[in-house]
Design a protein that fits this description.
The protein is mainly alpha-helical. It has a domain of about 60 residues. Helices cover about 50% and strands about 10% of the residues. It has eight helices and three strands. The chain has a three-stranded antiparallel sheet with strand order 1-2-3.
Length: about 160
């Protein structure tokens, strides 16, 4: 399985070029070691868009994400199979901004490239409210974990 995962990384890197962030893929791969060994997750945008899912627009454009028309392939010209194969090659994402790259809440943050673009006009932008919301989620998770530990000790 590990060899197949690394072959997949190599293929994605060839297709995506400089926009490929191998560290992000590994971070997702390592989140839950038991599950990720069986089901490694490869990603272009930090989600399934463009890898496992797509949208076809009214004018025949294959989009990795229906919220983001920045990258597309023309299925009317190329045919579906060729457009799907070529899609990752056209994706050029900016590097993740420094604030997000060093954030301790990365693994629970729900912001994606499409949200970043919609909220800030920049694919690598950082909507401040997302940071605040994610910190609240972290606090709730920590509180729940703490309360769960208290219940276990009481038993």
């Amino acid at each position: 399985m590990r060899l197949a995962f690394h072959r997949g990384l190599k293929i994605i890197k060839e297709f995506a070029g400089d926009s490929f962030d191998e560290n992000k893929v590994y971070a997702e791969y390592r989140q839950d070691r038991r599950d990720s060994v069986r089901n490694p997750r490869l990603s272009l945008f930090g989600c399934d868009a463009g890898m496992r899912s797509y949208t076809v627009s009214w004018d025949g454009q294959l989009l990795g994400c229906q919220m983001m028309g920045n990258f597309s392939e023309d299925i009317l010209q190329k045919g579906f199979r060729k457009a799907w194969e070529d899609f990752p090659k056209g994706v050029r994402l900016p590097k993740v901004n420094e604030k997000c790259a060093g954030c301790e809440n990365q693994n629970i943050c729900s912001v994606c490239c499409a949200s970043r673009y919609a909220e800030t006009g920049d694919l690598g932008g950082c909507p401040e409210y997302v940071c605040r919301d994610t910190e609240i989620v972290r606090e709730l998770l920590n509180r729940r974990k703490k309360d769960g530990n208290k219940e276990n000790r009481a038993v």
